[in-house]
Amino acid sequence: MAVGFPIAGRRDPVLDELVGFFVNTLVLRVELAGDPTVAELLDQVRVRSLAAYEHQDVPFEVLVDRLNPSRSLTHHSLVQVMLAWQDADPAAELALGDLRVSQLPVDTRTARMDVALSLAEKWNSAGEPAGICGEVEYRTDVFDAASVETLIERLRRVLVALTANPAGRLSSIDVLDGAEHARLDEIGNRAVVTQPATTPMSVPVLFAAQVARAPQDVAVVYGERRWTYRELDNASNRLAHLLIGYGARPGNCVALLFSRSAEAIVAMLAVLKTGAAYLPIDPVIPTARIRFMLDDAAPIAAITTADLRSRLDDHGLLVIDVNDPAVETQPGTDLPGRRPKTSPTSSTPRVPLAHPRGWRSATTTSPNCWGRWMRACRRRGVVAQSFPGVRRVGVGDLRCAARWGRLVVVPEAIAGSPDDFHEVLVAEQASVLTQTPSAVRALSPQGLESTALVVVGRLAQPRWWSAGRPDG
C-alpha cells in the first residue's frame, strides 16, 4: 500500500529564513502481507519513514521519471491518496516583522489526488487535546460526498481499533458498522443460508405433487395450445419410458436440441423423471460448438424435433424425435422411483448439465434472487419464459410454475416483437418475467402491474420498470 505525504523540504538551515515554497512529496510504501499486528505495522512505518526522509530532496517529478510506471489518464501513477499532518500550532500567529498576516482558505476547484486528507490535532479552550480534525479533498469524478463521508467514518473506526489493541492483527479490524452488516446479511439472505440443511426435493417430485393437487389446471401455455398438468405428466411419462428403454438412468445424460416450445418442456421433464441429467443445446450455436458439447458430455441419446434433426447428423448418436409416433405407444403411467445422481468430478472443464435436483443448487447459490422469484410465483404463479427453452434457467421457470401456477412459453416470433410480446404478457397476466435487459427496455410496463418480478442481467433498467418491484 502506497500513500503520499508532503514534507517541508527545509533540511538546510540556510533555508530557514528564506521565503519560498520548498514542499516535496514523498511516497511511503507499506507491506501488509502476512497480516501484521498493529505494533508491527507501526514499527514498519517508522523505519520506512526515516528511510524516506533521507531522500526527501529528490523531487517527486524525478522519482516518477526514474521509476517510469505505467501511465494512466484516470489516476496518478504512483499514489492516489495523500495524507498531510499539520503539526503547527493553530493558535500561534505568523509574524513577518511589522506585517499583519491572515490565513485565507483557497478553493482551487481541483484535486491533485483521488483523495487528499489534511489532519491536525484539535485542542479545547482549556488547552486540552480534543481529538483530530481536518478536511478532505477528493475528485468528484471518482467519489461523491456520501462515499467520502463513509470513508471518513471507516477511517475513524480503524483509528479507534488501532489504538485500542496494538497487539491485534489488521484482519481483526472491522471497518463496517451495524447498519452495513445488516445490509450485507440482507443481500446475502443470511437468514436462509444459515438455516439447518433440509432434504432437497427434485423437480419431478414437486411436479408430481402438483399433478395430484390440481391435475386439470393449466401447466403450460404455448400459443393457442394449453397443456394441463395431467396432459403434461402423461406426455413426459411416455417419453421417459422410451428413454429408459434406451438406457437413460441416473449418472448419464440426454441431449436436448430445441427452439423455445412446449415440446422442450415435455422433454426436460421426461429426462429428469428418468433420473438422468439433460444437456441443453441452443440450435443457433455453430456446429463445431455442438460437436464439442456432445463429445464432452457423451449423452446416450438426443431429443429434438424433425426440423432440427439434421443438426445432429454425423455424431453417431441416437436421435429421438419428440413427436415420433413410437412415443405415443409408451405408457403414460408414473415411473418407478429413481434416485438422482450427479456425474463424477473431473479435472477438465465440463459442459454444464441440468440434474433433477440442480434447481436446488441454484437457489442456495443465489438465494436472494430465487427467494423473490418463489414469492412472486406463490402470489399468482404465471411465469413467462422467453429465454431459450432448454437453458438452465428453464428449470427454475418450470419448477416455480409447476408448483404454484403455469408456465407461458413465448414463441420466438412473438418474443422478437415488443408489441406482440407485451400483448401476450398482458393477456396471461404474467407474474414473473425473465428476459434480457435490452428486451425489457423495449417493453412498456403499461398493463403489466401483475408482473411482480422482472429478472434481467446487470444492466440498469428504466425507472418506470422499477416502480412497485423489488430491487436487487
TrEMBL record:
Gene3D superfamilies: 3.40.50.980, Chloramphenicol acetyltransferase-like domain (3.30.559.10), Nonribosomal peptide synthetase, condensation domain (3.30.559.30). Pfam families: AMP-binding (PF00501), Condensation (PF00668). Residues 328-360 are annotated as: Disordered. One of its GO terms (molecular function) is 2,3-dihydroxybenzoate-serine ligase activity. It comes from the Bacteria. Signal peptide: none annotated. It comes from Mycobacterium xenopi 4042. GO terms for biological process: amino acid activation for nonribosomal peptide biosynthetic process; enterobactin biosynthetic process; lipid biosynthetic process. Residues 2-184 form the Condensation domain. InterPro entries: AMP-dep_synth/lig_dom, CAT-like_dom_sf, Condensation_dom. This is AMP-binding enzyme family protein. Residues 207-326 form the AMP-dependent synthetase/ligase domain. One of its GO terms (cellular component) is enterobactin synthetase complex.
